[in-house]
Amino acid sequence: MTVTSDAKPLRLAITGMSCAGCVAAVETALSGVAGVAKAQVNFAERTAQVMGDVAAATLIDAVRAAGYEAAELRDTHAEAEEREAAEQAHYRRLVRNTLIAGLLAAPLMIAEMAGWLPALTAPNGPRFWIATGLLTLAAMVYSGGHFFIGAWRQFRHHTANMDTLIALGTGAAWLYSMLVTLFPASVPSLARHAYFEAAVTIIALINLGSALESRARGKASAAIQRLLGLQPKTARVVEGDLERDVPIESIGIAMLIRVRPGEKIPVDGEITSGQSLVDEAMLTGEALPVTKREGDPVTGGTVNQTGTFVFRARRVGSDTVLAQIIASVRQAQSSKPPIARLADRVAAIFVPSVLIIAVLTALVWFNFGPEPRLSYMLVTTLTVLIIACPCALGLATPISIMVGVGKAAEYGILIRDGAALQRAGQLTTVVLDKTGTVTIGRPTVTAIVAAPGFEETEIFRLAAGLEAGSEHPLARAILDAAGERGLTLSPVAQFQAITGQGAVGQVENRTLMVGNRRLLAERSIDTTPLHTEAERWAAQGQTPVFVAVDGALAGLIMVADPPKPDAAAAIARLRALGLRLVLLTGDHAATAHAIAAQVGIDEVFAEVSPTDKAKLIVDLQADGAVVGMVGDGINDAPALAQADVGFAMGTGTDIAIESAGITVVRGSLHGIADAVAISRATLSNIRQNLVGAFLYNILGIPLAAGALYPATGLLLNPMLAGAAMALSSFTVVSNANRLRSFHPRGTPT
Ligand code: ADP
Ligand code: MG
Description:
The protein has 749 residues and is an alpha+beta fold. It is a multi-pass membrane protein.
């Protein structure tokens, strides 16, 4: 199987992004570079993906100019480990920041509450408070320095982000407290209070929140880690009588590689000797191991079980199926569904809006507030700056998409982008192509009926001669049957395929027509003598293929293509998801109805030509249905493209990921039910996150500004605001992580 995709995107690691507003800034900076076709920032992973013809250095300069840092990612093993180590170091740094700030904050708070702290006017008051202020400053520089540096960098680029809010809030609290300490006379006596403990507590809490979030985010990106981990680091190359272990990067095409029991297969290839059972579950979600013999393809990242074999490498590096699955998952993880649009628009203007609200709050309290006005003004403004959290808003969608897309990959489902994911969750109707989708797709001949004056072997020889020119699965069945009978075929002349009907041509100087009833009827050949026979077989789900020789009906070949063994169970699941199911086929009506009955579908559209398949989807959509179309991706391309979500089944050799919104790597219809269930779960997770983040800010900011004060006298403590803010984004990430334990089949597998 091959996953086709555009040129490889450039990937950058971005540092300095603290909130969703930064995502927009970095994306705009990248998109503005000449030659960039598309730039996407994955906020959850702190990476950017850029498509287009452009040098990494140019992009890095553009990111720097916007106030952030960037480095190119090449995704070798060493680099993945380096990034992992950097992430760990960052986490430890956040924990250290929390501890240092907390070490000062905790005793200060306890002493404050116990009333142990000296008043500013007490004999040793000034000395105590100056010392406390200096200690606080030291803790703020050590544990919160990054907020101030970030805010400064933003300021120099005439922008603002979350760092700005935190730096302004805690900075103002410290400056005011220092002012009160050094020049108590400069503020009214009632307002003489220091807020050092608030500043340092907020710094501690926000660091704690980031540490928790970083941990949870690490879990959320586990799917990519898992896929990356499937690739072994070395492979055992066979050269004549010698065998040696080489790093996977230096494997070339056509090299021979030995795989021993229990080992992971390093790259894609074809077995040249030996045989074994291979577990492909991690790539396809298919639980049963597959037998592989000489000549069979093997896929990098799957696990050899008991046997030993040697295979020839066919695809290496970024061409392997695993590499392309990883690329496709990454791409999908950083794309956003339409549902994210509102949150993104709000996030983009969030920080400036909060700054304006903070200024308004200050003005209102200063002009209309009770005494001590300065204290009230400071506390409310500080609380507004601290409680506002664009992170929760910005993380709400991408973090769930990241987990959802990863979850899907675990089940062998590749989702092209956020839009496909959202649509799949909203489907009302699923249209299934019959051949190769509901059925196994490897038809075999079961019977033949000759018309008077014709002989069975003659019909076979002539029909197979014609079908040698056809690509249709039915043609292959007839050719195989002729082969089994040991017939020698004559070449076909003037071969012509009639789409959706069959084929015509000249064999042994006789005019041959092989196909459905319509093919013959439209060429005025009477098919009635064999109708009863045809209907009898069709009622059992077999396809009657009519054969005409020199304008006369010659016989009927019966071809059976039974449903996949798990089709009925998968269709029952789709029905349980509340979906309307439709079987769509170019095949004989009675055959289609019989197959539909066997698998439990009650709506059938049969004898539909390929062009009419797309029209049928349009009709369903006109009636208000949101339609998913499941097909093989090649024959049914127009219908797949017309559907709201096209599902391609990867049964065959090639999965054309570009033509379908969702690709099911293994050829089972269970994949469709899994995809719909995962999409729905992801969508409702996103909704919970968005509602939570919006509500948090919509309620939190007015509360912090003191909206309840006039009526109830209630004001929010700035430290409580710090705790709420620290928890808000952590809550969003944790909620998304709940998706990781979602089981599309209802029970743990
Ligand atoms: P499906 O929807 O089952 O994939 P197609 O559009 O490929 O159907 O074909 C529709 C019908 O046309 C088939 O069921 C078969 O009866 C007939 N047909 C098409 N091509 C051939 C062929 N090469 N040989 C015999 N019958 C054919
Ligand atoms: Mg077909």
